[in-house]
Amino acid sequence: MATEMHRARRTPTPTIKTLAEMTGYSIATISKALRESPVVAPATRDIIYKAAREVGYQANARGMALRTGKSFQAAVLMPVTAARDYEWDGVEYTQTLSGISQALDGTDYRMSVHVIRDAADGADAARRIVDQGLADGLIFSGILADDPRIDLLVAEDFPFVSMGRCRGDLNYAHVDIDNEWAAHAATARLIAGGHRRIALVNPERRLSYALDRIDGFVRAFREAGLEAPMDLIAEGDLSTHFGRQTVIDFLQLDDAPTAFVCINESTTLGVLSGLGSLGRQVGVDVDVIAYDDINVSAYFTPPITTFYQPIEVLGRTLGQFLLRRMEGEDPDALRQVFRPTLIARQPDNLGGRLIQS
């Protein structure tokens, strides 16, 4: 008796007939829309898809995936370091995923996250996704100067959007920061303030944006008629420890730097820690300019000058571009390079000479 009452109260599984009753369209029209037939107007199809989502038409959606050959999955490769005691790991990726999720909201696509350890693991994951049809499109970051993932996906004509650009001459959708411009602007600002020994706290050169940063750093010195201090380019894993150790090592030099350009918030925190441990004050003994994408630099002590670009905006643009790419849009139309905004919190001068931003 109780079992029969329970069955009676259960919500029936939605069917095509359910969708017909909800929308007022015929069963034939509903069926054609779910098969993505071109005879159904896009506006009608959108109404039917919306109704399907509202009633949880999941079983039928899987059938639609089989009929159309689509997985309705948007894959994201998320790097996670295998190193122990690594600070700051994954902080930026949380907001990147949030932005992508916002772009996919209200569509039939769901995000699937594939954790990878390094570039080689990422290339293997990309190959599996393509070969096994695990997703209809792919987003990834950490772009190498010569990136095998981009080579593979371009050759396969598989929809993807990269966060960053490789150095090859290939046509693909991407979202990026103008890293060359940012490094140039930060370095030029410090040079204008009287600094000549400027350190660049940078990632390893195998990464494409690391080379972009070096290009901008060198260009600023060249335009000022000066020789760039290549001995003050530090390359590492961008951890807080790396930033701290860079300061400690560089300030032991006979011709020590008087300013630092930092690649991210984590290294900046380490630089500030290293300066504090040596009794040096930002804005008095040494100047620091950072790049920030999660809006934490205002809370550093002291607050420092920053080039700021919200990473959530980047993530949302990545998701929007991927949706358009999966619809067949030409990748040439899906390229955007952001220039971060300067937030001046320190004068970045040497010897008390205030410079203008």
Describe this protein's structure.
This protein has 357 residues and is α/β, with parallel strands linked by helices. It folds into two domains: 73-177 and 311-338, Rossmann fold; 179-310, Rossmann fold. It is 43% helix and 16% strand. The chain has 13 helices and twelve strands. It has helices spanning 2-9, 16-23, 27-34, 42-54, 58-68, 91-104, 119-132, 148-156, 179-192, 208-223, 240-250, 265-277, 311-326; strands spanning 73-79, 110-116, 137-140, 160-163, 173-177, 198-203, 233-236, 259-262, 287-292, 305-308, 335-338, 341-343. The protein has a six-stranded parallel β-sheet with strand order 2-1-3-4-5-11, with helices on both faces. The protein has a six-stranded mixed β-sheet with strand order 7-6-8-9-10-12, sandwiched between helices. Helix 8 (148-156) links the parallel strand 3 and strand 4. Helix 7 (119-132) packs parallel to helix 8, helix 9 (179-192) packs parallel to helix 10 (208-223) and helix 11 packs across helix 12. The chain is elongated. The termini are far apart. Residues 1-10 and 351-357 have low confidence and may be disordered. Keywords: DNA-binding, Plasmid, Transcription, Transcription regulation. It comes from Ensifer adhaerens (Sinorhizobium morelense). One of its GO terms (molecular function) is DNA binding.
A few lines on this structure:
The protein has 357 residues and is of the alpha/beta class. The chain has helices at 2-9, 16-23, 27-34, 42-54, 58-68, 91-104, 119-132, 148-156, 179-192, 208-223, 240-250, 265-277, 311-326, and strands at 73-79, 110-116, 137-140, 160-163, 173-177, 198-203, 233-236, 259-262, 287-292, 305-308, 335-338, 341-343.
